[in-house]
Queue: 2 jobs
Job 1
Amino acid sequence: EPEVTQTPSHQVTQMGQEVILRCVPISNHLYFYWYRQILGQKVEFLVSFYNNEISEKSEIFDDQFSVERPDGSNFTLKIRSTKLEDSAMYFCASSEWAQRTDTQYFGPGTRLTVL
Amino acid sequence: LAKTTQPISMDSYEGQEVNITCSHNNIATNDYITWYQQFPSQGPRFIIQGYKTKVTNEVASLFIPADRKSSTLSLPRVSLSDTAVYYCLVGDGNAGNMLTFGGGTRLMVKP
């Protein structure tokens, strides 16, 4: 069964450094998402991406964040100048159809720890 | 403004039916309501989705009243392996129709 993959599984970085989190969505999917989950809290929407551009973004997704689909398979989340409060699990998801509430398939997540 | 809300936790016993309700009093008009299951250190996993009335699949049922201001996930005959956190996901009109997860309901199934 196709699945969303994410790398790395755990990223440790120093405050102020840039990190890039990588995702490979399911191959025939059209809509891509990034979510954040701070330890012990709920999953929070960051951004959705369709047709090579941002479709929606939340208040959390400020100028510190950017997304990119650099090739036909990868979908990345870049966090510039990381802050302590960026420590969280980051989940990538993809959906087959271009309907924002279509079934989303989530990756296993990347745990980001900012020291 | 009310947000997308769920009970924080529920306890049940094996074999019982469990109903978890999510309140979304200002859901975006064209959006589906989706429920996900999450185990510790894993990504959410799709359970069921609906727009209105009742939807049933092999693992759950979803009840949505006509006004769509709430939805109820029904898990028949739960087992220990159903212990997890359950989230509803909607477009929340109180947040500019932003995709919003409910706070999550931690279900504990006891033997």
Note: Chain A touches chain B at residues 4, 33, 42-45, 48, 56, 58, 91, 93, 99-109 (CB under 8 Å).
Job 2
Amino acid sequence: GAVVSQHPSRVICKSGTSVKIECRSLDFQATTMFWYRQFPKQSLMLMATSNEGSKATYEQGVEKDKFLINHASLTLSTLTVTSAHPEDSSFYICSARVGTRETQYFGPGTRLLVL
Amino acid sequence: AQSVTQLGSHVSVSEGALVLLRCNYSSSVPPYLFWYVQYPNQGLQLLLKYTSAATLVKGINGFEAEFKKSETSFHLTKPSAHMSDAAEYFCAVSGGDDKIIFGKGTRLHILP
């Protein structure tokens, strides 16, 4: 149980285009989903927290207009990187959680490369 | 506020030897503590977690960790390293604001 999927696993796009990444909890309903960004050989940096049906809460320094998060249901959250630039290239990981302070279950990650 | 410090960005042990990965935390509230493992180009997998019950926590793959409040530590151990244990390990803390704060990670190398 507690499986989280991400799609796509890898995406290459041209600078200026938008990319959507999906995060799904497959066998449980997630009250909260999180989006992280991980640079090579570094730790995970929390970008935003999203609760189903409400606006996402972004961490300081994360541009909400650039990284659009939609949490339309208890099993799906999407991250859209708008007008992507090469500096947005990174490994994006989502996680899902049931309840407060409970374990977060992580997706396999999405590797984004912006040319 | 919460923070995590992992001592040693790289640790090398011989196959069959004891694995010890160090983690110290800071938290203004009773913490929840986690150890996650990450294999290359993959997401994070939970090894074990401490949530204020038993101080010695057993996880998957033979790993365990002991919560020591007096030392603000949550070190990860495994009695006998296996080649498949080579990966990146993250210690993490969750406090009253429900966010998980990750350490910088420790890459574990297993020597044949």
Note: The CA atoms of residues 32 and 79 of chain B lie 24 Å apart.
